[in-house]
Each structure stands twice: as structure tokens, then as C-alpha cells.
Design a protein that fits this description.
The chain has 357 residues and is of the alpha/beta class. The protein has 16 helices and twelve strands. The strands form two sheets. It has a nine-stranded mixed sheet with strand order 1-2-6-5-4-3-7-8-9, sandwiched between helices. A three-stranded antiparallel sheet has the order 10-12-11. The longest helix has 15 residues.
């Protein structure tokens, strides 16, 4: 078992926390050695039950299947020891030892704002979430959210529609998309940002996964905006993590007689910055974000260009295959391909290969 496989395996074993994995890594300098340690040493460092799980790890985790799917579906893995691991997330008290990534995490994603809120949100909440995300993303801010129904969904949509970047954090494995109706949204997020999870690929959306997901949402972000939240909303858990991690907390006010305003109004009373437009967020974080740049105008796309873009992703395709899949006449296809390059939406590689930019 190599070092990466050791991280994947320990991360998948039930009951072994991120904190314990990191302690093992600090003790040994690597995780490969964990599996050759004596039972008595493991029992002393962890517990009898956890030592048994490590010694019998094959009963709990199908590493071979995990590796096959990672390779087949171009899903990358980032461990805490790697340079590409998000630096903001690395700062929190209990960072995930492993991140599964569909898409790309870029250096510009350090300028990230989370937008989260109620699943059963109002039209007002949907509109505010979408507008805030669009306004911030169009100015170079990466929008982070949890891909849940309601506010999260509209935050991601606003970022995507602006042509900006967005990161979706799942409370399940990447091969168990939840909620299922957001599967197409998740695909789009992976093409215009990244879909990430700390859980093994086939992990169901267990209830206890979501607080862990929430700490990652805030950990990736410079600040968290809460848009509509009841008094017991999971979004308030994200706000609590943000405070613990030293992040800024923002809240959008709502109707005083609405149950969806209970959580946000409480946050405002407790010191969260009131937000009703994107400038309120930027003003608070100017030392970290710098001066706002001019809003990035959305690139207009023709129906023919849309056909080609739907074919392309982050995996390079040969020009002949793109033309076949797009079903466009050759005379139209080559014109569309050139236009998409000029608009900066696709990139050409050697060998007549193309991918979405």
C-alpha cells in the first residue's frame, strides 16, 4: 500500500476521526507505517476497537474499487500533505485528511465566500441568494455552498450564470449525489469550479455527515453569508463553525414575522454584519479581497455554441469526436469552434484536442 492509498484507507475506516489520522501522521511522518504497527501499539494510541479496524481494514473498505472509479471518472484526491490542498481549509482545527475533487481547485479560490441557508426557502430567499452569488462571482469571488435544496442551489446557480467559479461541498460521497435532483447542477459545478467531499466515493448522505460538511464550507471561505434560516437551521451550524475558525459571518434580514428570519435575525443581534447587497460583504473583507474589480460581463452564447460546450468538459476530446457528438454540419461546426476559442470558453491542445476552459 502506497502513501496515498494509506490516507484513503484510514479516512474510510469508521470511528477514526480526522484528528486521530493527523496525529498518526505527525507521530510517524507518513501513514504507510500505520498498517505495519503492532496491535498493542495501535491499541495504546487509539483503542482496541480502532486497532482491530485497522488490522482488518479490508472488511470495511474496498480500496481496489475506489481506485478504479477514481481513475475512470477523473476524480482527483488531495491529502493534507499535498501542496494543492486548499490553504484556508488547512488552517482550521480539524481539516479533512482527504478531499475527493471532481473538477479543479485553483489558487484564485482563496478569495471565496460561502452562501448557505434554508432548504425550504421563500422566493425572496432564492432571489437574494442568486443575486448575491452572481454579483460576487462576476467580480472574481468563488462561491462556496453545500449543493442542498433551496438557498444552496440558488447560490450555485447565480455563480454559474455569471460565468464565475463555484465549489460545492457534499455530505455524501461523489458517487452518491445528494439530493438526486441536483445531479445536473453538480455536473455543471465540476465544470466551472469543483465538487468536493471528504467522504469515500460511495458514502450515503448520513445525517451525521452534514455538520462535518458544514465545517468544510466555512473552512474554505473568508466569510459565510446566511440567507434565511429557522431557529434550528443547519446553516446556523455553519455560522458557528465560521466563528470558531475566525471567519466573518454575515446575515440577510427578512420579514420580522417569518420563521425563516428567526436564525438570521438572531445572528444580526449577536453581531453578524447585516447584508442586503454584495458591497456589504466586500466592505468588511476589503483587506483580504482588495478593491472590487469591474463586474465581469456574461459571455453571450449562441444555440450552436451551446451544443459544442455541452460536449466538452475537462477531459480533452478530438475535434472529430466533438463534431460527431454536437451533430452540427461541418461548415457550422468549424465557425462555432473558432468563436468559442475567441471568447475564451474552450482551449486547444496539441493533436487537435479541445477542452472547456
Amino acid at each position: 500500500m502506497n502513501e496515498r492509498d494509506s490516507w484513503l484507507t484510514l479516512n474510510a475506516l469508521p470511528g477514526i476521526s480526522p484528528h486521530q489520522i493527523l496525529n498518526l501522521y505527525r507521530r510517524l511522518g507518513n501513514l504507510k507505517e500505520v498498517f505495519s504497527l503492532s496491535f498493542s501499539t495501535l491499541e495504546k494510541w487509539l483503542s482496541k476497537e480502532k486497532a482491530e479496524r485497522i488490522k482488518n481494514w479490508r472488511n470495511f473498505f474496498d480500496l481496489e474499487r475506489e481506485l478504479r472509479v477514481l481513475d475512470k471518472e477523473s476524480i482527483s484526491v488531495l491529502t493534507l500533505r499535498e501542496e494543492g490542498y486548499p490553504p484556508l481549509l488547512k488552517e482550521i482545527p480539524d481539516p479533512p485528511p482527504v478531499l475527493y475533487v471532481k473538477g479543479e481547485i485553483l489558487s484564485q479560490d482563496r478569495k471565496a465566500i460561502a452562501i448557505v441557508g434554508a432548504r425550504n426557502c421563500s422566493l425572496y430567499g432564492k432571489t437574494i441568494s442568486r443575486t448575491l452569488a452572481e454579483d460576487l462571482a462576476s467580480r472574481g469571488i468563488t462561491i462556496v455552498s453545500g449543493v442542498a435544496r433551496g438557498i444552496d442551489t440558488f447560490a450555485h446557480l447565480g455563480a454559474l450564470e455569471s460565468g464565475g467559479r463555484t465549489i460545492g461541498v457534499l455530505g455524501s460521497g461523489l458517487k452518491f449525489p445528494y439530493p438526486p435532483e441536483n445531479k445536473k447542477l453538480m455536473e455543471n459545478i465540476s465544470l466551472q469550479g469543483a465538487l468536493i467531499s471528504e467522504f469515500p466515493l460511495f458514502t450515503p448522505p448520513f445525517k451525521h455527515n452534514f455538520p462535518r460538511r458544514n465545517r468544510v464550507i466555512s473552512g474554505l471561505s473568508l466569510g459565510v453569508v446566511i440567507v434565511e434560516a429557522s431557529g434550528r437551521s443547519g446553516a446556523l451550524i455553519t455560522a458557528s463553525f465560521a466563528l470558531e475558525q475566525g471567519r466573518e459571518v454575515f446575515a440577510v434580514p427578512g420579514k420580522v414575522d417569518s420563521w425563516l428570519s428567526e436564525g438570521t435575525h438572531r445572528l444580526i443581534k449577536e453581531g453578524a454584519k447585516l447584508v442586503d447587497k454584495w458591497e456589504d460583504v466586500w466592505e468588511e473583507l476589503t483587506p483580504l479581497l482588495g478593491e472590487p474589480r469591474k463586474k465581469k460581463e456574461k459571455v453571450k452564447i449562441t444555440p450552436e455554441e451551446e451544443k459544442v460546450l455541452k460536449v466538452l468538459g475537462k477531459t480533452p476530446l478530438h475535434i472529430d469526436e466533438i463534431m460527431r457528438k454536437s451533430s452540427l454540419p461541418s461548415t457550422v461546426f468549424y465557425r462555432v469552434l473558432l468563436n468559442l476559442q475567441l471568447k475564451g470558453l474552450i482551449k486547444e491542445l496539441p493533436g487537435k484536442l479541445f477542452l472547456a476552459h
